[in-house]
Write a structure and sequence with these properties.
heterodimer; A: 145 residues; mainly alpha; 0% strand; B: 115 residues; alpha+beta; Arc Repressor Mutant, subunit A
């Protein structure tokens, strides 16, 4: 006995397994599948056959996943995401380094000038790491295209 | 973009964006309805592999031509509706101009051939 919910659940698992991880993209494709299944059923097609035909018309998991991955490589990172990415790394670095510097100053009586110098160096070093990571991420994504 | 089209693959692919823009200029719509409308209007000569429409829509959205929202109308299921943005209207006008030019040149040449 054909079970639509079970069939859809299996199809979603196949899609997710093939690399289409976006729930929203899957939801949208599922809605399409349900619409097409309903239209085919209305013409009194056997449910299992109707679902198979709807799946075929929707396209194979491999082809769809490949096409969705192309979009991601077309638009790897929007400028605002790049800025937030950089800021995130800077803040993470600062939240680790600054308390450590404050403790060093407190315990060892290191002059403030040196502390400021170390902080400046940290910002420069973190920015460098950020640029490097950014370049690596881009190369990785372009390699997938 | 299609399985066994009456129209060649390249033409179906090239016409996807202008057709989607022109269809959405009539009002917001969702993927399945867009495909059905295009099939009816082309008398099934524009054959798509349905799922391939969505990457096209997403790409157009990323380009700033479209916007989308999930909405539920009446007793229908929740669906993702697409509509034109200002840039989409401009792109549609440009497509229209370009396709009209191709059509005019082609029609002119054909007319001369048969005169």
């Amino acid at each position: 006995m054909f079970n639509l919910e079970e069939a859809i659940s299996q199809w979603r698992q196949q899609m997710a397994g093939g690399g289409l991880m976006s729930f929203e993209a899957l939801d949208e494709l599922e809605e399409h599948l349900r619409d097409d299944f309903a239209r085919r059923q209305a013409t009194s097609q056997d449910p299992a056959e109707a679902f198979t035909a709807a799946l075929e018309q929707l396209g194979s998991t491999t082809v769809l996943n490949a096409e969705y991955q192309k979009i991601n490589s077309d638009h790897p990172m929007k400028p605002i995401v790049k800025i937030l990415f950089g800021l995130g790394i800077l803040l993470t670095g600062a939240s680790v380094v600054l308390p450590a510097l404050a403790k060093m100053q407190e315990h060892f009586g290191i002059p403030m000038e040196l502390i400021w110098g170390l902080m400046g160096g940290t910002v420069v070093a973190t920015s460098g790491i950020c640029i490097l990571l950014h370049a690596l991420v881009f190369r990785k994504i372009k390699a997938l295209a | 973009m299609y399985v066994s089209a009456m129209l060649p693959r390249e033409l179906v692919a090239a016409s996807a964006e202008p057709l989607i823009l022109a269809l959405l200029a009539r009002g917001e719509n969702y993927g399945y309805a867009i495909i059905q409308e295009l099939k009816i209007r082309s008398e099934n000569r524009l054959q798509w592999t349905d799922g391939m429409l969505y990457p096209v829509l997403h790409r157009m959205e990323a380009k700033g031509l479209l916007k989308s929202r999930w909405a539920q109308r009446g007793k229908e299921r929740k669906r993702k509706y697409y509509s034109l943005k200002q840039d989409g209207r401009r792109a549609m006008a440009k497509h229209h101009e370009q396709w009209s030019l191709v059509h005019a040149v082609l029609a002119g040449l054909r007319k001369e051939t048969y005169v």
